[in-house]
Write a structure and sequence with these properties.
Layout lengths: L1 E4 L3 E5 L6 E6 L4 E2 L4 H6 L1 E6 L6 H4 L3 E5 L3 E7 L2 H6 L4 E10 L2 E10 L5 E10 L5 E5 L2 E6 L2 E6 L4 E5 L2 E11 L3 E11 L1
Length: about 190
C-alpha cells in the first residue's frame, strides 16, 4: 500500500490493481472510500480489444516513483501476458494530489511494431446517499455540503447502476507510439 498526502487529502493506493482504496479529507477525517464494499467496487480495467482478462489485475504493478503527494506505478507486458495479448507495452499510472483533488494520469506506450487495440476503464462506486449530477465531461456527486467532482477531457463518463464508469473504449494505439489519458477527482 502506498500513501500520499497533502494538507487537504490523504490517499492510499494499492499495488494490487493500482486502485485507490482510501480517499480521506484531512480536515474532517472522512474517508470516502473506507467501506470494504466500496473498496472492492473500485477498479482499474485495462484490456486488449475482445479480451476478457483485466491486465491491470493479472500483471504486477511496480512503484517507479514516489513522493509525498504523488505515486507512479508501472505495468509492463511479460511472456504470459504476451500469449494472451500479443503486444509489447508499458503503462504508467500516476496519482498526484493537487489542491483539493487528485489528478490521475494513465500513460500508455505501444512498443510493438503493430497497432494495439485496447480499452481502459475506471469504475467508481456511487456512495449511499449521494446525488449524481451529470454535466459535459464531468459528474458531480453531492451529499450534505460536499461535492466530489469526477472530470476528464479524454474519457467518456457515465453514471448508472450505482457506479461511475470512466471509459476509453475501443481505442487503437499506433505502433511505436504513446498516449496520455487524464482524469481528476476533486472535493469541494
Amino acid at each position: 500500500m502506498q500513501t500520499i498526502e497533502s494538507s487537504v487529502l490523504r490517499v492510499a493506493v494499492s499495488e494490487k490493481g493500482a486502485k485507490v482504496v482510501n480517499f480521506v479529507a484531512q480536515n474532517s477525517q472522512i474517508d470516502y472510500f473506507k467501506d470494504v464494499a466500496t473498496q472492492k467496487a473500485l477498479e482499474v480495467i485495462f484490456r486488449g480489444a475482445e479480451q476478457k482478462e483485466n491486465l491491470a489485475d493479472i500483471l504486477p504493478w511496480t512503484v517507479v516513483d514516489k513522493g509525498d503527494s504523488r505515486v507512479s506505478l508501472a505495468l509492463i507486458d511479460d511472456n504470459s501476458s504476451y500469449k494472451k495479448f500479443p503486444f509489447h507495452f508499458e503503462a504508467i499510472l500516476t496519482y498526484a494530489l493537487e489542491g483539493s483533488g487528485i489528478d490521475i494520469k494513465f500513460y500508455l506506450k505501444n512498443n510493438s511494431h503493430k497497432d494495439m487495440p485496447f480499452s481502459l476503464k475506471f469504475v467508481i462506486p456511487v456512495f449511499s446517499g449521494w446525488k449524481v449530477n451529470t454535466n459535459a465531461n464531468e459528474i458531480v456527486l453531492n451529499k450534505d455540503k460536499t461535492n466530489l467532482t469526477i472530470a476528464s477531457p479524454n474519457f467518456t463518463l457515465t453514471a448508472e447502476n450505482n457506479q461511475i464508469s470512466v471509459a476509453y473504449d475501443a481505442a487503437t494505439l499506433a505502433s511505436d507510439s504513446d498516449e496520455d489519458l487524464r482524469l481528476s477527482l476533486a472535493l469541494s
